[in-house]
Predict the structure.
Amino acid sequence: MHIPMRVLLGEWRPTERLPTGHLPGDGIMPHLKETYYSTRIRPGSLIVFSDRRAWQIIDVSERPDDLWPEHFNNEWDRFTTWWTEQAAAGRDMGAEPTRATWEHRPLVLILRPADQPTAKPRHIAIRASRTFFVLPEHYSLCRLCQEIPPCRHVVNEATIEREMASAERLMAIPAGACLGCTEPITSRMKAVRFPGPNLWRPDLGPDTAVFHARQDCEDSVRSYRQLWEEKGHAELQPELPEEAP
């Protein structure tokens, strides 16, 4: 099974193309059109919840104003302060916001597992702008995990395979070659060198992490720099000259 890169990087999405569901309520996607890509969540809708399982919506209701969780009240105060400042600066901010139509207000989502029609419903405070993948009446499940595919097991296996393939590619790079494209770096080429231990190929020794200073290798340089800075190293050594002295 092909697992998209965004899933391997932690942004889970179902294998099957599913419409994005928006919660009902005033001020929430008021101009939403029902399409293959987006829909409105209603009682009876089936959604994918945080555990990658199917849940059935029983009801969605407004949370009483005096029962808003503290972090929602704090966020509302920050938002209205920002809105007032922008309006005072002369910017067109539209109608003054209200708690009853604020798109990030808390709603009460009542739901239960789709395969347990007699289970006790769960009541969850949910942000009104939160979206969910909406399932059709007939949907796929992993036989072993009972999760909406790709399940955790499949994603973990694909992640391990990707890491092993990346390690094999790195180990095949000869000393002095670009860690991004794996091609040699000659003395006449501009390059970016990272001093200190080689974080991708420690066996090559210190001061050996080098990349071409060209667009094709920018993503690799960016990835290495992020890891390099996380390790607390000093500023990047200037790019090497086009010609050796």
